[in-house]
Amino acid sequence: MEVKIESSWKKHLKDEFEKPYFKELTEFVKKEYEKGSVYPAPKNIFRAFELTPFDEVKVVILGQDPYHGPKQAIGLSFAVNEGVRNPPSLQNIFKEIESDFSTPMVHTGGDLSRWAEQGVLLLNATLTVRAATAGSHQGKGWEEFTDAVIQKLSDEREHLVFILWGNYARAKGARIDRTKHLVIESAHPSPFSAYNGFFGSKPFSKANAYLKAHGEKPIDWL
Protein backbone atom coordinates (compact mmCIF):
# COMPACT_ATOMS: atom_id res chain seq x y z
CA MET A 1 0.00 0.00 0.00
CA GLU A 2 1.43 3.41 -1.01
CA VAL A 3 1.55 5.87 1.88
CA LYS A 4 2.96 9.38 1.50
CA ILE A 5 5.30 9.60 4.45
CA GLU A 6 8.94 10.64 4.88
CA SER A 7 11.25 8.01 3.32
CA SER A 8 13.07 6.85 6.47
CA TRP A 9 9.75 6.27 8.25
CA LYS A 10 8.36 4.53 5.18
CA LYS A 11 11.28 2.11 5.33
CA HIS A 12 10.88 1.36 9.04
CA LEU A 13 7.09 1.12 8.99
CA LYS A 14 6.54 -0.57 5.62
CA ASP A 15 5.19 -3.77 7.19
CA GLU A 16 2.63 -1.74 9.13
CA PHE A 17 1.15 -0.27 5.96
CA GLU A 18 0.33 -3.74 4.64
CA LYS A 19 -1.61 -4.87 7.68
CA PRO A 20 -5.41 -5.15 7.45
CA TYR A 21 -6.03 -2.62 10.22
CA PHE A 22 -4.10 0.08 8.36
CA LYS A 23 -6.03 -0.48 5.16
CA GLU A 24 -9.30 -0.24 7.09
CA LEU A 25 -8.03 2.91 8.84
CA THR A 26 -7.15 4.50 5.51
CA GLU A 27 -10.63 3.85 4.13
CA PHE A 28 -12.24 5.23 7.27
CA VAL A 29 -10.15 8.43 7.19
CA LYS A 30 -10.81 8.98 3.46
CA LYS A 31 -14.56 8.74 4.03
CA GLU A 32 -14.39 11.10 6.98
CA TYR A 33 -12.63 13.78 4.90
CA GLU A 34 -15.23 13.32 2.16
CA LYS A 35 -18.11 13.73 4.63
CA GLY A 36 -16.99 16.97 6.26
CA SER A 37 -14.35 18.85 8.20
CA VAL A 38 -11.52 16.75 9.59
CA TYR A 39 -8.29 18.02 11.14
CA PRO A 40 -5.48 18.45 10.35
CA ALA A 41 -5.47 19.12 6.60
CA PRO A 42 -4.63 15.89 4.71
CA LYS A 43 -1.15 17.16 3.78
CA ASN A 44 -0.34 17.52 7.49
CA ILE A 45 -1.45 14.10 8.77
CA PHE A 46 2.15 12.84 8.75
CA ARG A 47 3.83 16.22 9.28
CA ALA A 48 5.54 15.13 12.50
CA PHE A 49 7.32 12.42 10.51
CA GLU A 50 8.24 14.79 7.67
CA LEU A 51 9.94 17.23 10.03
CA THR A 52 11.65 14.60 12.19
CA PRO A 53 13.09 11.65 10.21
CA PHE A 54 13.57 8.34 12.04
CA ASP A 55 17.33 8.65 12.56
CA GLU A 56 17.08 12.26 13.71
CA VAL A 57 14.64 11.68 16.59
CA LYS A 58 16.08 12.69 19.96
CA VAL A 59 12.94 13.36 22.01
CA VAL A 60 9.36 12.10 21.69
CA ILE A 61 6.50 14.16 23.16
CA LEU A 62 3.30 12.17 23.03
CA GLY A 63 -0.11 13.81 22.72
CA GLN A 64 -3.56 12.28 22.38
CA ASP A 65 -5.79 13.83 19.65
CA PRO A 66 -5.19 16.70 17.24
CA TYR A 67 -6.99 19.90 18.22
CA HIS A 68 -10.52 19.83 16.82
CA GLY A 69 -11.09 23.57 16.34
CA PRO A 70 -10.70 25.44 13.03
CA LYS A 71 -7.16 26.45 11.98
CA GLN A 72 -5.59 24.83 15.06
CA ALA A 73 -4.17 21.39 14.24
CA ILE A 74 -0.99 21.28 12.14
CA GLY A 75 0.04 17.64 12.56
CA LEU A 76 2.31 18.19 15.57
CA SER A 77 1.20 17.30 19.10
CA PHE A 78 0.34 20.35 21.25
CA ALA A 79 1.18 22.76 18.38
CA VAL A 80 -1.12 25.21 16.58
CA ASN A 81 -0.80 27.47 13.56
CA GLU A 82 1.00 30.77 14.02
CA GLY A 83 -1.53 33.50 14.71
CA VAL A 84 -3.88 31.12 16.51
CA ARG A 85 -4.19 31.67 20.27
CA ASN A 86 -2.13 29.12 22.17
CA PRO A 87 -4.44 26.55 23.83
CA PRO A 88 -4.27 26.25 27.64
CA SER A 89 -2.06 23.12 27.62
CA LEU A 90 0.49 24.81 25.38
CA GLN A 91 0.40 27.94 27.52
CA ASN A 92 1.25 25.77 30.52
CA ILE A 93 4.05 24.01 28.61
CA PHE A 94 5.60 27.41 27.86
CA LYS A 95 5.22 28.46 31.52
CA GLU A 96 7.07 25.31 32.62
CA ILE A 97 9.85 25.95 30.09
CA GLU A 98 10.31 29.48 31.43
CA SER A 99 10.38 28.17 35.00
CA ASP A 100 12.67 25.27 34.09
CA PHE A 101 15.30 27.51 32.49
CA SER A 102 14.58 30.65 34.55
CA THR A 103 14.26 32.77 31.42
CA PRO A 104 11.43 34.06 29.21
CA MET A 105 10.44 32.25 26.02
CA VAL A 106 11.99 33.74 22.88
CA HIS A 107 9.42 32.13 20.56
CA THR A 108 5.90 32.43 21.91
CA GLY A 109 3.99 31.29 18.81
CA GLY A 110 2.31 27.90 18.83
CA ASP A 111 3.87 26.36 15.69
CA LEU A 112 6.42 24.02 17.27
CA SER A 113 8.09 23.01 14.01
CA ARG A 114 11.31 24.60 15.35
CA TRP A 115 11.37 21.82 17.97
CA ALA A 116 10.54 19.15 15.39
CA GLU A 117 13.41 20.27 13.17
CA GLN A 118 15.80 19.78 16.12
CA GLY A 119 14.71 16.17 16.63
CA VAL A 120 11.58 16.40 18.78
CA LEU A 121 8.95 14.00 17.42
CA LEU A 122 5.64 15.66 18.33
CA LEU A 123 3.46 12.58 18.02
CA ASN A 124 -0.26 12.34 18.65
CA ALA A 125 -1.63 8.88 19.45
CA THR A 126 -4.46 9.58 16.99
CA LEU A 127 -3.47 11.52 13.87
CA THR A 128 -6.88 12.79 12.73
CA VAL A 129 -10.08 14.04 14.33
CA ARG A 130 -13.54 15.16 13.20
CA ALA A 131 -14.21 18.89 13.62
CA ALA A 132 -15.60 19.84 17.03
CA THR A 133 -15.65 16.19 18.14
CA ALA A 134 -12.80 15.24 20.44
CA GLY A 135 -11.85 11.56 20.33
CA SER A 136 -13.93 10.91 17.20
CA HIS A 137 -11.15 8.96 15.45
CA GLN A 138 -10.02 6.96 18.45
CA GLY A 139 -10.31 3.20 18.23
CA LYS A 140 -10.07 3.17 14.42
CA GLY A 141 -6.46 1.99 14.10
CA TRP A 142 -4.33 5.05 14.70
CA GLU A 143 -3.38 3.85 18.18
CA GLU A 144 -2.04 0.59 16.76
CA PHE A 145 -0.01 2.54 14.22
CA THR A 146 1.48 4.92 16.78
CA ASP A 147 2.21 2.00 19.12
CA ALA A 148 4.28 0.55 16.26
CA VAL A 149 6.11 3.88 15.89
CA ILE A 150 7.02 3.87 19.59
CA GLN A 151 8.06 0.22 19.42
CA LYS A 152 10.34 0.83 16.42
CA LEU A 153 12.03 3.77 18.10
CA SER A 154 12.48 1.85 21.33
CA ASP A 155 13.88 -1.24 19.58
CA GLU A 156 16.07 0.32 16.91
CA ARG A 157 17.36 3.53 18.49
CA GLU A 158 19.29 4.24 21.70
CA HIS A 159 19.32 7.05 24.26
CA LEU A 160 16.08 8.72 23.29
CA VAL A 161 13.97 10.78 25.68
CA PHE A 162 10.24 9.97 25.87
CA ILE A 163 8.13 12.64 27.59
CA LEU A 164 4.78 11.20 28.70
CA TRP A 165 2.21 13.57 30.21
CA GLY A 166 -0.92 12.12 31.77
CA ASN A 167 -2.25 8.59 32.14
CA TYR A 168 -3.05 8.11 28.46
CA ALA A 169 0.54 8.83 27.39
CA ARG A 170 1.95 6.74 30.23
CA ALA A 171 -0.06 3.74 29.04
CA LYS A 172 1.46 4.16 25.56
CA GLY A 173 4.88 4.13 27.20
CA ALA A 174 4.57 0.47 28.20
CA ARG A 175 6.42 -0.45 24.99
CA ILE A 176 9.55 1.57 25.77
CA ASP A 177 12.74 -0.22 26.85
CA ARG A 178 13.71 1.86 29.87
CA THR A 179 17.14 0.25 30.13
CA LYS A 180 18.30 2.21 27.05
CA HIS A 181 16.01 5.25 26.94
CA LEU A 182 14.99 7.98 29.40
CA VAL A 183 11.26 8.12 30.16
CA ILE A 184 9.99 11.29 31.85
CA GLU A 185 6.46 11.04 33.24
CA SER A 186 4.24 13.58 34.97
CA ALA A 187 0.72 14.95 35.08
CA HIS A 188 -0.71 16.42 31.88
CA PRO A 189 -0.19 20.16 31.21
CA SER A 190 -3.95 20.66 30.93
CA PRO A 191 -5.31 23.28 33.40
CA PHE A 192 -7.23 20.42 35.04
CA SER A 193 -4.05 18.61 36.08
CA ALA A 194 -1.02 20.89 35.61
CA TYR A 195 -0.84 21.70 39.32
CA ASN A 196 -0.85 17.99 40.21
CA GLY A 197 2.74 17.38 39.17
CA PHE A 198 3.33 18.94 35.78
CA PHE A 199 4.49 22.32 37.04
CA GLY A 200 7.94 21.94 38.57
CA SER A 201 8.65 18.60 36.87
CA LYS A 202 11.43 20.16 34.72
CA PRO A 203 11.14 17.74 31.78
CA PHE A 204 12.96 20.03 29.37
CA SER A 205 16.17 20.50 31.35
CA LYS A 206 16.13 16.79 32.26
CA ALA A 207 15.86 15.88 28.58
CA ASN A 208 18.74 18.18 27.67
CA ALA A 209 20.96 16.86 30.46
CA TYR A 210 20.38 13.30 29.24
CA LEU A 211 21.08 14.21 25.61
CA LYS A 212 24.32 15.99 26.55
CA ALA A 213 25.39 13.03 28.72
CA HIS A 214 25.09 10.81 25.63
CA GLY A 215 26.91 13.11 23.24
CA GLU A 216 23.86 14.70 21.63
CA LYS A 217 23.21 18.38 21.06
CA PRO A 218 20.51 19.61 23.48
CA ILE A 219 17.21 21.05 22.28
CA ASP A 220 16.69 24.81 22.21
CA TRP A 221 13.26 24.83 23.82
CA LEU A 222 13.09 28.61 24.16
Q: Keywords for this structure?
A:
222 residues; alpha/beta; globular; 8 helices; single chain
What is shown here, in short?
By secondary structure, this protein is an alpha/beta fold. It has 8 helices and 6 strands.
Q: What's the mean pLDDT score?
A: 96
The 3D shape can be described as globular
- SSE order, one letter for each helix or strand: HHEHEHHEEHEHEH
Q: Which structural class do you get from the secondary structure elements?
A: alpha/beta
Helix content: 25-40%
Per DSSP E runs of 2 or more residues, the count of β-strands stands at 6
Q: Determine the strand fraction and express it as a percent band.
A: 5-15%
Low-pLDDT sequence parts: none
N-end to C-end Cα span: 40 Å
Widest sheet: strand ordering? 3-2-5-6
Radius of gyration: 17 Å
Assembly context of the chains: single chain
**Main β-sheet, in a few words?**
4 strands, parallel
Total count of helical runs of at least 4 residues? 8
Strand-helix topology:
Layout: H1 7-17, H2 20-35, E1 38-39, H3 47-51, E2 59-63, H4 88-101, H5 113-116, E3 120-124, E4 129-130, H6 142-156, E5 161-165, H7 166-172, E6 182-186, H8 203-213
Describe the fold and architecture.
By secondary structure, the protein is an alpha/beta fold. Helix content is 37%, strand content 11%. The strands form 2 sheets. It has a 4-stranded parallel β-sheet with strand order 3-2-5-6. It has a two-stranded antiparallel ribbon with strand order 1-4. Strand 5, helix 7 and strand 6 form a beta-alpha-beta unit. The N and C termini lie far apart (40 Å).
